[in-house]
Amino acid sequence: SFNSLNHDMTLAEFKFIWYMEYSHRMWGRVVGLAYLLPAAYFWHRGWLSRPLKGCVLALCGLVCFQGLLGWYMVKSGLEEKPDSYDIPRVSQYRLAAHLGSALVLYSASLWTGLSLLLPRHKLPETHQLLRLRQYAHGTTALIFLTALSGAFVAGLDAGLVYNSFPKMGERWIPDDLLAFSPVLRNVFENPTTVQFDHRILGIASVTAVTALYLFSRKIPLPRRTRMAVTSLLAVACIQ
Asked: Which residue in 170, 174, 137 sits closest to 158, CA to CA?
């Protein structure tokens, strides 16, 4: 790797990226302990109900799986690839899996914590409320997919291919969008297609969040729910 990339790197520059990686690993281990030790204590004291024990075990499994995925991802960047003369990098597939697992772990932890801290609102199951809930779930899935596509952008350095917006260079649709064969391979391995997909998904996510906010304004909702939807729109705009 040193001979292929950054062969003029100084020791101080190497230490900087080494400490970034080291800090990330240590922080991940601290997060794991911050979850596992209190969970074991609460379990031992008998403070967890039977359904909550299932949640705790599932989250514990996700914490361990996340660390394993991180090791598996880094391993792909250290493997010798005799047929490749490209810049050494980790597999974009493993990077996406590592990010996706982290998002699932974070979301599940937050959902479990808020379910315990905040009482659930008992609202009449109207047709509008059911549609809002379904649309919110669909928007969540779209945002998750957008984040995963960002991992492919990072893994392939696809953000360096075009740096203009909304057009990509001088065109709305680049010439090399489907340069690879078979066609499906472009979605995951063609940097141009990966950046194009991420742009489309990002715009679609912001549009979906905006539509969700506008739809929610037509329905009588609790104050807490309105604050959540408004915050979602604000974060989407900032992002």
From this structure: 174
Express each pLDDT in 52-105 by its tens digit.
999 999 999 999 999 999 999 988 877 766 555 556 678 899 999 999 999 999
Q: CA torsion angle for 166, 186, 144, 24 (degrees, to 10)? A: -100
Rounded to whole angstroms, the Cα distance separating 47 from 43 reads: 6
Q: What are 141-165's pLDDT values in tens digits?
A: 999 999 999 999 999 999 999 999 9
- Considering the entire predicted model, what is its pTM? 0.86
Q: Cα(136)–Cα(8) distance, rounded to whole angstroms? A: 50
Distance CA 5, CA 126 (A): 60
Same domain, 154 and 63: no
Single out the residue in 98, 117, 136 at which a domain terminates.
117
Return the structure tokens found at 82. 């005799």
Residue 90 in contact with residue 77, Cβ under 8 Å? yes
216 in the same domain as 123: yes
**Which of 117, 137, 170 is the C-terminal boundary of a domain?**
117
DSSP letter assigned to residue 119: P
